[in-house]
Amino acid sequence: VSAQASAGVASSLKFSAASHAAPPCTLSIAMEDHGDEVPFPAMSPAGIEELTDEQQDKQNAAKAQGAEALEEGNLELALEKLTKAISIGAASALLYARRAQVLMKLDRPRAAANDCTAALAINPDSAKAFAIRARAYKKLDRIEDAHLDFQTALKLDYDEQVYEESLEVEAKVKELKAAAVGKRNAEEEAEAARLLEENRQKYVAGLKEREGEYKEKADAEKAEKDKVESERRERVRKRESEEKAEKEKEAKADEPGVPKSHGPPEDVD
Q1: Cα distance between residue 248 and residue 255, in whole Å
Q2: Is residue 35 within 8 Å of residue 110, measured between CB atoms?
Q3: Quick one: pLDDT at residue 115?
Q4: C-alpha atoms less than 13 angstroms from C-alpha of 25 in its C-beta half-sphere
Q5: What is the mean pLDDT of residues 260-268?
Q6: Which of 78, 96, 76 minimizes the C-alpha distance to 31?
Q7: CB 51 within 8 A of CB 90
């Protein structure tokens, strides 16, 4: 399937380019998850690549009955008849797309999307299938998938109604992208703030560590200065003490009546 046709297909199924021409019998399994909906209606059975004249007549009759029921507004009967036609085998892309329309009216968007995916596996250029699946995806709130399918449908076959429907989805996609950008910016800002705070804490821790080293060094330097100063003061005190003692000794020796033990002898007349 081309890149356009593959949009929205369940990841568990992948079609090769050669499957474009594959017979409808390869579509006997669902390509979407029915989720909370009732199980999907039957697909074309495997093993039937071409209908006999009798089978073709039965299929045509069932399709006609389905179209008639749809015109009368009997959606359940229309679904029953179209499913009968598909179950005969070799269902066309158009037949799957018609049933998808009925399923959308019955509020079964998952089943409708599944039929459209089956139709696109048969005819990847079915603008009708892309448009219906876009509506189904929109109802399922798969906005980006819906936008892609709407744009593909318009490229394949422009339709004014499809274009009008696509505008709302396009606006929502822009909102989602803007929200995603805003979220990404907020996350980036939060991460930047986190890194900034982390670096700030590392810087503060480094300052504290260096502050401790500086204080220890300053204390050691102060202790050394205090020691030197203390030793200097002690020398000064000692010197002053010695000078004082010497002066006191000299003063005592000069007092009257105190013999000068070491003075020269006086002259005797």
Answers
A1: 11
A2: yes
A3: 97
A4: 7
A5: 55
A6: 96
A7: yes
Question: What CA–CA distance (Å, rounded) separates 34 from 201?
Answer: 53
Cα–Cα dist 186/101, whole Å: 42
Neighbours of 67 (CB within 10 A): 14
Helix (H/G/I), strand (E/B), else coil: 241: helix
Q: What is the dihedral angle through the alpha carbons of 235, 241, 242, 243, rounded to the nearest 10 degrees?
A: 110
Neighbours of 150 (CB within 10 A): 26
Helices (H), the chain: 3-6, 53-71, 75-88, 93-105, 109-122, 127-139, 143-156, 160-253
Residue with token string 């085998």: 89
pLDDT tens-place string over residues 79-137: 999 999 999 999 999 999 999 999 999 999 999 999 999 999 999 999 999 999 999 99
Alpha-carbon span 14 to 1, nearest angstrom: 8
Structure tokens that stand for 98 in this block? 């018609």
Closest Cα partner for 43 from 88, 80, 11, 81? 88
